[in-house]
Write a structure and sequence with these properties.
By secondary structure, this protein is mostly helical. It has 6 helices and no strands.
Length: about 200
């Protein structure tokens, strides 16, 4: 059967949802690996990563069941949820790519002042103390603090923040286009007739 028919749409939709399933399991696995090896001490960050992974897994599961069974209601809800996720993810990805140096600096300062666990992770992994100025009287979890010869963290973080934001924005943008592809495939597949089904059973 030529691509564009019922079987091709079904197989493409199943493959797309299997990809989403793998990505969701990867997200959960990376979060668990980071916390178990002590790379991440922020339970809020781990919680967000796990929640996103579970949410993506559930969406993929709904899409997979809907595609296999050609279930009209499941496919409808899957299409709507995927469209909403596309809008949010596309907006966030564009925001990541559009942030300039000054906005990145402000974002870093807000994050630094509001989350102690993230601050601890940054100081420990980048071997730095303080945001803009190193103060030997403050507590710090980095190795350099023992010798009282530490660099402030802001210059080190700002050196890589642009690259990280571009990477995150690019990955998010790529996946947002796979989501709009999923919406289009679901819409087309939902309105196609299963050639093996009873014609009177099609809704």
């Amino acid at each position: 059967m030529v691509c564009g028919g019922f079987a091709c749409s079904k197989n493409c939709l199943c493959a797309l949802n299997l990809l989403y399933t793998l990505v969701s399991l990867l997200l959960i696995g990376i979060a668990a690996w980071g916390i178990s090896f002590g790379l991440i001490s922020s339970f809020r960050l781990v919680g967000v990563a796990v929640a996103v992974g579970i949410f993506l897994f559930l969406i993929a599961l709904v899409g997979l069941i809907g595609a296999v069974k050609h279930h009209q209601v499941l496919l409808f809800f899957y299409m709507i949820i995927l469209l909403l996720v596309f809008i949010v993810q596309f907006s966030v990805s564009c925001a990541c790519l559009a942030l300039n140096k000054e906005q990145q600096s402000q974002l870093l300062e807000v994050t630094w002042n509001n989350t102690d666990s993230t601050r601890t992770d940054i100081e420990r992994h980048l071997n730095c103390c303080g945001l803009r100025v190193f103060d030997p009287n403050e507590t710090c979890s980095s190795d350099c603090f023992r010798s009282r010869q530490c660099q402030p963290c802001a210059p080190i973080v700002e050196e890589y923040s642009g690259m990280v934001l571009r990477f995150v924005g690019g990955i998010g943008l790529f996946f947002s286009f796979t989501e709009i592809l999923g919406v289009w495939l679901t819409y087309r597949y939902r309105n196609q007739k299963d050639p093996r089904a009873n014609p009177s059973a099609f809704l």
